[in-house]
Amino acid sequence: MAEEIPWERLFEEALRVRQRAHVPYSKFPVGAAVLYADGSVVAGCNVENATYGLTVCAERNAFAAGVAQGREKPVAVAVVVDTPEPCPPCGMCRQVMAEFAGPDIPVRSRTLNGQEARYSLSELLPHAFTRSFL
């Protein structure tokens, strides 16, 4: 399925929404876009809070927006960051992805200068805590 994923469209959406990130403390804007099986793309950016602990990452915001929109079956995730090398999603974002997506979902991270890293969720979170444990 990786050949069918419109990665450029996903990265464009992640880049676009990244510009809306609320990052007055870290100055680290991130954009993410999730592709769903129905072809829809839902994007999210990171939103910081003065208490830091209430900050929500771009990936989690994208997945939460997908839930709010009634989207099901995420099939790919793209992330855009302004770092020298591509930055993978944080641990909390990986766990949220595991809640909604299977271990084989492809996750790509791209820098503003075009460097890209490619992962599967199982590579990022090899021993995910899932509903199968409950």
UniProtKB/TrEMBL annotation:
Ranges where the CMP/dCMP-type deaminase domain occurs: 5-132
A Gene Ontology term for the protein's cellular component: cytosol
EC number: 3.5.4.5
Record bears the keyword Glycoprotein: no
Sequence positions that bind Zn(2+): C57, C90, C93
Keywords attached to this entry: Hydrolase, Metal-binding, Zinc
Entry keyword annotation includes Zinc: yes
CDD domains: cytidine_deaminase
Essential cofactor(s): Zn(2+)
Family matches, as InterPro entries: CMP_dCMP_dom (IPR002125), Cyt/Deoxycyt_deaminase (IPR050202), Cyt_deam_tetra (IPR006262), Cytidine_deaminase-like (IPR016193)
Enzyme class: hydrolase
Active site: E59 (proton donor)
GO molecular function: cytidine deaminase activity; zinc ion binding
Protein name as catalogued: Cytidine deaminase
Highest classification ranks of the organism: Bacteria, Pseudomonadati, Myxococcota, Myxococcia, Myxococcales
